[in-house]
Structure formats: structure tokens, C-alpha cells
Amino acid sequence: MRSIPAVIVSMLTEGIGFRGVLIAAALLVGHASNAAVGLDPAMTKMLADPNVPSDRTKIDWAKLPKVKAERATVFRGKKNEAYSIHSYLCRFGGEFWAVWSSGFVYEDQPGQHVRFATSDDGLHWSKPKAVMPRPEGNIRFITRGLWVRNGELLCLASRDSVGKYFGDDLQLLAYVWNEQAGKWEPKGLVCDDAINNYPPGRLPNGQWMMSRRDCNMKKSMLIGGVESIGGWKTAIVPEPADGHCLTEPCWMTVAGGVLAVVMRDENRSRRIYRAFSTDNGNTWTTPVRTDFPDARSKIFTMKVSRGPYLLINNPNVLNPDPKITYMGLRIPLCVSFSKDGLVYDRMAILRDEVTKPRMPGRNKDPGYMYPHAMEHDGHLYVIYAANKEDIEVLRISLAELRKLGRSNEGETE
């Protein structure tokens, strides 16, 4: 693990305030020190926006600012391609690339595969094509992101048999883009009995890391990926003390090189869970339930250059449809801002228009969901699924985000 002085020096270099230094130091020496410096011993405090009441069922969405954004459609669902979800973005070869899971009618049914499209500007997209042929029999593919590694563009996809949540034959595979042939080709096995949530990201020590769930939903981190696409070691993420089933982890490096991973709760607490690592992901604290509201949907976190840390999710814990009791409404889609990646002090709306699916299909919920985002040339690009039918992109000025991300106390850049 990194020493306390090293973390503190790093954080001060990054301009993080005294509160952030205390939090990082407390993580290194244990929860008792958290209490000693007056911080939440369990690190459950995650949202401190005065426009969001402590009773998360009483949020007045009209009081939240709305982000100005340009919107584009990457793919509009149609007959026999009526299900679209798990979308990801990246830049490669001077273009934007988008990939997503494409199914016939409903979620993760046999025959689901991966489609992709490209764009010069992130707003005008090519006609979608397939990464791989639709599988036959009881097999499905689930898109797992785009990974630029050693000058190659890789598309990650899990492959398994439909039946249990993830089949016993679960594998994470890679496909590489062949520019000369103008097509994707199989690259090989990334990890057996594994499905990630987002593509690998760089650790402070230069290694790659991504989350892993096995066929029994056990969570861990895969660290490595430098020597080969299949060269990983496993770091276990502990189960929460309350026994809740956590899924879809998303991690990022926050102030001082501390890693923070957020997770969705399948046990319907309607709250985000979180854990930390101070040793490049090799060990993790026990995940705890935070006070950050979540509709029970996918979460994405990142930091923009010269700006705040971002968390994008569906924070509505209520659902007006009496038939849908297993999750909150995935409207609105929001972005929240933090100076240290630990506590978020402002929330804003990305999409809040009333919407619903055009075509029938099992588990096709209304809303704007499963976000992924990237920064390029002064803008943030956010890709997401609308109603699990359409794939859309928002383009947002980073100047707009930095303005919104200033603290409610009026702090400037």
C-alpha cells in the first residue's frame, strides 16, 4: 500500500482540499481514524447537494439545473432489432466508435450479438454493422466495451448460454478491428468465466484493471493486461456485511491515487454501494451502502480534465408504475459533480422527458439508462439507451460542465 505521506503529498499537488486529505489518510489507517477526525466512519456520505433532501423519495426534480446538450441518434430500434442496450464509446483512428448489444425482441435472448457504428463528430453516425454474426442455438453475446491497447482497437464481448443469469460456459472474448479488411476479427480469450462491466482502465502503476463477475455473480477485479490480453490476476472485492447482492461495478482513481468502486444493489435498497483501495486494486474495503440514490440501474464515473469528477446514473428511487416494484424509474438520467470523487455536491439533469418503448418486449423499461461517457476536444460525450430500444449520444461543452460543477458555496476554477 502507499504510505500516508505519499498520498497526502499527491493530493495536495492535485489541489485537493484538507477534507480530501483527511479522507484518504483515514482510508489508509482504518475507520477508527475516520471517527477521530469527525468523518463518517463507514464512508456512507456520498451526496451533499442542498437541492436534494435527505428523504430521497421527495426530490423535486424541477429544482435541479438541466445540462445544455446536443443530442444525436446512433441507432433507432426496429422490428427484429427491437432491443438495444450496453452501449459504449471511444475514439480511435480519428473517429468515434460506438458498440452496443442488439437483440431481436427482449433482453439477452438467444441470438443477441454486438453492433457498431462510427462518426466523425459524434453526432452523425454511419449505418450500423455487426461485430460478429448472430449466434445460433441458445447462445448470446453481450457488449462489454471498446479497449484501445497497443495501437489496436478491441471490442470486448461476453459469450454464454441463455438460462441462468450468466451461463456456466461464460467467457469474455476480444475482437480486433482490421482496418485493411474493414471488419472485426476474433482476437482471442480475455478471461474464462468472466463478464466485465466497463473496458479496462489504467491504474496509477500502469497496469490495466477491470471489474469481473463470474457465472455465480461473485465480484472481483482483474489486474494486468499488459503482457497479453489474457494475462490477469484476480483481486477479490468482499461481499457487503448486509449480504446484499451487488453488481455492475464501476471504478475510477480519485484524489491521491485512491481507487473508488461504486456498485448497483440488486436487493432494492435504491442506494449506491461503494468500496475503496489504496494499493492499486489488490485489496478492497468491504462495500458499504451510501446515501446516494439509485433507481437500480447502471452507474458510470469519471473525471474530466481541469474539472470535476462525474457520476452519471438514474437517481429516481420512485416508480409510478404499480407493476414495476423491483426498481425506481429510470427517468431522469442525471450527472453529479464532485471535487474529490468522494462526496458529490451538485446534481444536474441530462434527460428527463417522459418516454416509453415503442415496441413490446420483456424487461423493456421506460427511461434513459446504462450510460458511458468520454471526453474529447472540449466536450463530454455521453452514450446511453433510450427505453432499451434506441442508442443515443449527448454532446456537452466541458465549459458548461465545469460551470455546473462548481460547488454550491460558489467556488471557482
Please give the structural blueprint.
Layout: H1 4-13, H2 18-29, H3 31-36, E1 70-75, E2 83-92, E3 95-103, E4 113-119, E5 129-130, E6 139-149, E7 152-161, E8 171-178, E9 183-192, E10 201-202, E11 208-213, E12 219-224, E13 232-236, E14 246-253, E15 259-265, E16 271-277, E17 288-293, E18 300-303, E19 309-313, E20 333-338, E21 344-351, E22 368-376, E23 379-386, E24 390-397, H4 398-405
Antiparallel strand pairs: 1-24, 2-3, 3-4, 4-5, 6-7, 7-8, 8-9, 10-11, 11-12, 12-13, 14-15, 15-16, 16-17, 18-19, 19-20, 20-21, 22-23, 23-24
Helix pairs in contact: 1-2
CATH class of the largest domain: Mainly Beta
Mean pLDDT: 90
Determine the N-to-C terminus distance: 32 Å
User: Tally the helices: what do you get?
Assistant: 4
Order of strands across the widest beta sheet? 1-24-23-22
DSSP helix fraction: under 10%
CATH fold type of the largest domain: Neuraminidase
- What is the number of beta strands? 24
Second CATH tier, the architecture of the largest domain: 6 Propeller
Written overview of the protein:
The structure is a single chain. This protein is 9% helix and 41% strand. It has four helices and 24 strands. The two termini are 32 Å apart.
